[in-house]
Amino acid sequence: MRLVVIGNPGSNRVGFLNEALQRYGQPDAVLVPWRELIEGRTELSAHVQPGDLVRIESLGRDAAVEAALVGVGYVAERGELFFPARWYAGFCRVLAQLAATPCHFTSAPCEIITLFDKRATQQRFAEAGLTIPRSLGAHGSLPELAEAMSTLGVRQAFVKLAHGSSASGALAIRTDGKGRWKGYTTVEQVGGTLFNSRRIREIESTDALDSLLCALAPHTLHAEEWLPKASLQNSAFDLRALVIGGKLHHVVARLSQSPMTNLHLLNKRADAATVRERVGSAAWDALTELAERAAQCFPKCLHLGLDVMWLPGFRKLALLEAKAFGDLLPGTLHKGKTTYEAQLEALGFPC
Question: Are 6 and 37 contacting, i.e. CB atoms less than 8 angstroms apart?
């Protein structure tokens, strides 16, 4: 049994996968470069043999790959918010082409397409009866968002790119109900261009918040209730929970003093044992049940990365997001195995 991976040459994801294969005495995965597929210089069928397993890996942050996918004649600057709606349309087109290839995918292209649409993903979870933040719809100005929040009776909201990831284009916003607003975001405006950074800045000007929402609106937005998170080690926290083969495996807590908990923003982390000790066995069992029920919503995915949080008191969980490529957790082990080793085991590789 061979493993074929669609990925970027030299990426850490492909490297970690090959390291796992090597530890089990297996040859490196057959690499099909994303850029060659997107540009039509190769086809998946040219690399696949009967009995192969095909893994679709993240496109990562390769500027040349993104430019090819979006179909523009220039490469984006570092951190530039780069046509996310067009990116998603191009990604869907390429995944549809891959789906036409007769082979066995570890995660089906159709499932990945859904997972890259926050609205479609949350709808699937809602239909399964899972607890998610209440949707506020899509609004391109502060007055529109304020009206939606007032109708729902909430004073805090998260505005996200419908097809974004890693806090790209995200804005956490709250009001005191008396006309005063405050926002938190990693987005910076330079002229007419938007950039993501690792610096979370605060905005208190209503004009500046409205301007930012108007600038983000063309990229397709999804707004939802901003739920209060439980605390761990004097920080608000949520979890990245990785389900493999329908079972909860790796868990890492993401601790932050700001609304954004993403680890690439240099937030602190805590391991599963620390979280389990803090929340207790009943709350941990509830996490396991929620994560595995969420995975049932995507039965054609070998693995699913989930962003999950407890509300204060640890009596209620909420499912925030799901990631098709949420398994990049370097240094996080479950029963002594990395995320890639656990997936190889689930696929039946001799481990």
Answer: yes
